[in-house]
Structures are given as structure tokens and as C-alpha cells.
Amino acid sequence: MYAAMKSAWKDTVRHAVSGWEWRVEPVRFKPRIERSFGEFESRKVLEDPKESKARRGNAAFQLAWLKRIEQPIDLTCLDFGKAIVVHLPGEPFIEYQLRAQSLRKDAFVCVAGYGDDGPGYIPTAEAYFQGGYEITVALAGTETDSILTSAMKKLLDGR
Model-level pTM? Predict the structure, then answer.
């Protein structure tokens, strides 16, 4: 690890910053459609003292998310020309980083998550059907992938 970090530092290409641009793209995600993610079921779990703390905690997150779902989330982009940082909400899957890089091959693109943790995990559309822990607690619906990708395109194409 140390050797790799040392090598990466040595191979770093530096560029003078002659300007910068800040772009914002508001998005609205849709909620999950499964009954277990709805308000009634979430409230039922939250109010049941026999449920585990983890399930009650997840239900509380779901209720909070449903209460604020109409509030837009700002995706942001700090563009230095040769280097760009895109800020995404929640805990986005690595595919969003790779997708952002493929959208701007002329620049070093870095994606930072957790800009707004309201939606929790942000899987790709395909991942919802592949299963895994993250899918069971991801709060936004499957349309999130296309909404997020469209917004990233706008942010990254702001030249």
C-alpha cells in the first residue's frame, strides 16, 4: 500500500488553476414502492417494542425520508477544468464514480458521496434485482439511477 501511494504521488500530474466554476443541479428522487417501505408499515414497525432496534431504526429513517421526499437535493460540481469534483447524496455505489469518469474523459473526475444522507444507499437500477444488504435499506426507488445519471451529465457537461 505504501509503495502504491508513493508511486501515485510521484506520478501525479499538476496543473495550474486558472479559474473555477460551481454548478448545482437539484433532483427529486421517488420513494420505494414496496409495501414494507410505505408509511403504514414503517410506522407499525417503529411502534412495535418487540421489533429489533435495527428494524425500528430503519423504519424511522424510512418515515423521515418519506416526510421530506418532495424537498429537492442539490447535486453539486466544483469544476477546475482539468479536475472536477462531483458531490452526490447518500452512499452511492461505485458505478456512479465510474460513470462520472466515463462522461468526462478529458478531466480527472472525483465523486464524493454523503452530500445529503437522506436517501441512504444509492444502488444502480440493476443492483435492486441483484440483492444484498444495501438494497434492503436503500430508501429511494429504482428510478434514482436514471435521475442521478441525467443530473451528473448536466453537471459534467457545463463547459
Answer: 0.88
Grid cell, residue 57, equals 431504526
Model confidence pLDDT, tens digit, residues 118-144? 899 999 999 999 989 999 999 999 999
Residue 23 dihedral angles phi and psi, to the nearest 5°? -120, 150
Closest CA to 122 of 98, 150, 151, 148: 148
What residue type is assigned to position 137 of the chain? V
In terms of Cα–Cα distance, which of 100, 139, 102 is closest to 123?
A: 139
- For 148, residues 6+ apart whose C-beta sits below 8 A from its C-beta are 27, 75, 88, 92, 96, 122
**Extents of the domains making up the chain:** 18-30+72-156
